[in-house]
Amino acid sequence: MSNYVYPRYPYVQSKEQAEGVVRRHPVVVIGAGPIGLTAVLDLAAHGHPVVLLDDNDTVSVGSRAVCYAKRPLEIWDRLGCARPMVDRGVSWKVGKVFFRDQLSYQFDLLPEADHKMPAMINLQQYHLEEILIRRCRESALIDLRWKHRVVSLKQNDDCVQLGIETPDGLFTLEAEWVIACDGANSDTRRMVGAEFKGQFFQDRFLIADVSMQADFPTERWFWFDPPFHRGQSVLLHRQADNIWRIDFQLGWDSNPDEERKPERVIPRIRAMLGENTKFELEWVSVYQFACRRIDNFRHGRVLFAGDAAHQVSPFGARGANTGVQDIDNLAWKLDLVLRGRAEESLLDTYHEERAFAADDNILNSTRATDFITPKTRASGYFRDAVLDLAQHHAFARPLVNSGRLSLPTPYVASILNTPDSSSFAGDMKPGTNAADAPVTLGGEESWFLNCLGPGFTVVTFGETPERGVVRCGDIEARVVVVGRDIEDSKGLLAERYDVSNGTTYLFRPDQYVAGRWSRFDEADITEAISRATAQRNTQQRELAA
Questions:
Q1: If pLDDT is split at 50, 70 and 90, which confidence band does 536 have?
Q2: Mind listing the pLDDT tens digit for each residue in 364-403?
Q3: Are 447 and 77 in contact (CB under 8 A)?
Q4: Which CATH number fits domain 438-544: 3.30.2350.10, 3.40.30.120, 3.40.50.970, 3.30.1360.40?
Q5: Which of 50, 55, 180, 398 has the fewest Cβ atoms surrounding its Cβ within 10 A?
């Protein structure tokens, strides 16, 4: 059925297994899906050698994750691999919601212009993984090990011992830190005895990836109670290579084994597309989903990310997108710990910030699921009334919930933030990811996010500090002066950051705002760096003790 040819990556026996020695690595990542591949790329970008273990030797089977949002694309752009994703994928920003056979309302995910990355791309997960693997193979710091299955894990004070099974037998390796990206059914989570709590939803959905030539626009279409699938919901997305993703709600009483058979799937698709539409099935799956997360993203020297740490419903594209942002949060913190520039307590803030984001995603995902699949007659009446009203009344449209599309969660309560001491307008509060804008760099057109370095960066408007860096212990923050080092070519940087003469921002290595001030003050910036690396909090705890 599929025209896609799955690559096979070679298994290679490691030197340490061949020689029978136990070698210690700074970081070992488990799982070569999008999250694990992003993890090794980010750590390598910080200059660390890293080993990636996967028990398979190819990319994901089936398209699986489809939608990738603007923020993960910005992260992959920083890692040098977003451009081929955007070029290969299908960019979109408009979504339409239908009730029965009528358009209820539509939305635009990125109504303003002048952003480097699109609001969303649709791209089969196997294509995305190939791009990430290709980028990994360009780095001498990344050791990809296929057909390496982790069968045991033991934590010591200074390392983790991993038992590995390969085609050549068993061997042991050690890691100072382990990042578990081995999915919803994580063996690593079981090995450390972590709890995974939440809610399973008693509903089933059919995914059908269909190859066809169609004139549907490149938009997200969602139907409630359509004529071709009465009483249920349907979702339509276009992917690369003229592959279309169709999700049919089936109901809890459906038989998964029966529903995935072609003789059951094809009539559903024909009812939707029409008898004369030619198509071929590429991939079919029936799934049930859960909204839940791990008790702690850090278990000693084992750090969890992606589906190994949290699960959400597929409505809203919050799964892989959230996992990539886990790594974005974790990698710079682990970098500072590995270099001895921050205490291990900084890694505790990985849990604090990303558990907060996971809870936000779970809340939004649960609300969407409850709206899409009402469990009582009263909630069904409410949903249908909202959909009716939304066709003609603007006040009802925010109540329509076919899956709030993935957006970054601001870390509004993070202990790493320096609170505002001056009044600012707009959204760029401490704990918020940086907004992009077009700039001029060296006479060439560029983008603001590309001007933020791999470490801490100070951006100041109008003032010219004497020195080009601000130091806080072993940590340096590069100073970028707008008007000297870069030009605000369209004035959008000033608009998006509520700038006046002297406005200064401190950005973390993950491009989140750590602090902002009405003027450049080196002492304020130094204290903010100390806070953002958990040094200030460590000192306070020591004084209290």
A1: low
A2: 888 888 888 887 889 899 999 999 999 999 999 988 888 7
A3: no
A4: 3.40.30.120
A5: 398
Long-range interactions of 10-17: CB distance < 8 A, separation 24+:
10/57, 10/146, 11/57, 11/146, 11/147, 11/166, 11/167, 12/145, 12/146, 13/166, 13/168, 14/143, 14/145, 14/171, 14/173, 16/171, 16/173, 17/164, 17/166, 17/168, 17/169, 17/171
For tokens 């020591």, what's the residue?
542
Q: Which of 170, 150, 161, 224 is nearest to 374 (CA)?
A: 224
Backbone angles phi, psi at 170, to 5 degrees: -105, 145
What's the pLDDT at 15? 95
Does domain 15-90+123-197+293-364 fall into CATH 3.40.50.300?
Answer: no
Residues of the chain with CATH 3.40.30.120: 438-544
pLDDT at position 537 is 55
Contacts of 312 (CB under 8 A, 6+ apart): 289, 291, 318, 319, 322, 361, 362, 365
Name 112's Cβ contacts closer than 8 Å, sequence gap at least 6.
Answer: none
Nearest to 434 by CA among 513, 333, 491: 513
Flag the least confident range among 232-246, 268-282, 461-475: 461-475
- Across 464-486, b (16+ Cβ under 10 Å) vs e yields ebeeeebebeebbbbbbbbeebb
Positions of CATH 3.50.50.60 in the chain = 15-90+123-197+293-364
What is the distance between the alpha carbons of residues 506 and 515, in angstroms, rounded to a whole number? Answer: 5
Contacts of 348 (CB under 8 A, 6+ apart): 298, 534
End-to-end CA distance of the chain: 66
- Rounded CA separation 160/158 (Å): 7
Tokens of 515: 């602090």
State how beta strands 90-92 and 120-122 pair. Answer: antiparallel
Backbone angles phi, psi at 408, to 5 degrees: -65, 145
